[in-house]
Design brief:
alpha+beta; about 300 residues; 7 helices; eight-stranded antiparallel sheet; 18 strands; T-fold; globular; three-stranded antiparallel sheet
């Protein structure tokens, strides 16, 4: 099977659109345009790094209700439901903690200069005070939302749906390793490598995806110093230190996989009791239960 790849950058990462090489060229071009348009539109809504984004406007108005678009309302609703489901281990209201750890600008800019933790950590948990009623969103004073990886996964889902609607047999949309496969994929599946968190040129495992999504949370991808990275443990307000370097999780959608991957990274080995995935531990072990969950196999 010949595969065709189209790549571009958005949301601070490389976006890859993967399709069957026998697809009609015009249909393929239209599908790629739909993926690009989806990422551009939702980045304008959800990025905390853009001064003109809808999310930035909401964060600036903390303490006052703000009318939001149906898309942002849906995403925030999903984030709050995920916080309840994980008992706060996934917390969308961690912006202050992320900034306090030193991630106060686009990651390329963080890497360009020496960064340190800006202030001592303190526990999070104020997501319970966020109020969303229809199109009215109100954050408690002093709280900001960082939708980060969830926004990326949710956008991957929307982009894959848009591409498939262009008439493709199947499509895989991959945003920096977080991906969704839609349509009638080949029976043998699409090969997907699980990157070594300490050596991006190597793989710890190769999977074959026939349906659904994979997402990865890693404490080595966006790190700027010893113990300083973007994955906050809401229980402490500090960067996570669970003994897990990387968690890769399968779920039906990329948005669900994003939440589950962050939760698995915080929970550690016990997460593999109820979540299909791969854990890379700090002691060098690679643990997986991906023998036969529907949609993916090692």
């Amino acid at each position: 099977m010949e595969l065709v790849r189209h790549a571009f950058r958005a949301m601070g990462t490389q976006i890859l659109v993967l399709v069957d090489g026998s697809e009609d060229a015009a249909r393929l071009a239209g599908a790629v345009d739909r993926v690009r348009d989806t990422f551009e539109r939702l980045e304008r809504r959800c990025s905390r790094f853009r001064a003109d984004s809808e999310l930035t406007r909401v964060n600036r108005r903390a303490g006052r209700p703000t009318r939001v678009s149906p898309e942002l309302a849906e995403l925030v609703s999903h984030a709050l439901a995920a916080a309840r489901r994980t008992e706060g281990r996934f917390d969308p209201a961690v912006l202050d903690a992320v900034v306090g750890a030193g991630y106060d600008r686009d990651f390329d800019e963080v890497l360009a200069g020496a960064r340190v933790a800006l202030r001592p950590p303190r526990p999070c948990g104020r997501w319970r005070e966020v109020r969303l009623e229809g199109d009215r969103l109100e954050l408690p004073e002093g709280v900001g939302l960082d939708l980060g990886g969830l926004a990326k996964g949710w956008t991957v889902d929307r982009a894959a749906e848009a591409a498939l609607a262009a008439g493709l047999r199947w499509v895989l949309v991959n945003a920096g390793g977080d991906l969704r496969l839609l349509g009638e994929a080949p029976p043998e599946g699409i090969p997907v490598g699980v990157e070594d968190p300490e050596d991006p040129s190597a793989e710890v495992l190769r999977l074959h995806l026939t349906a659904g999504a994979l997402a990865t949370s890693s404490i080595t991808r966006r790190a700027w110093g010893p113990g300083l990275h973007h994955l906050i443990d809401p229980r402490t307000g500090a960067p996570a230190a669970s003994g897990v370097l990387q968690a890769t999780v399968w779920a039906p959608t990329c948005a669900e996989a994003e939440v589950a991957a962050k939760d698995a990274l915080l929970r550690g080995e016990t997460a593999l009791g109820d979540v299909p995935g791969v854990l890379v531990l700090a002691d060098g072990r690679v643990l997986t239960n991906l023998d036969a969950p529907e949609g993916v196999a090692a």
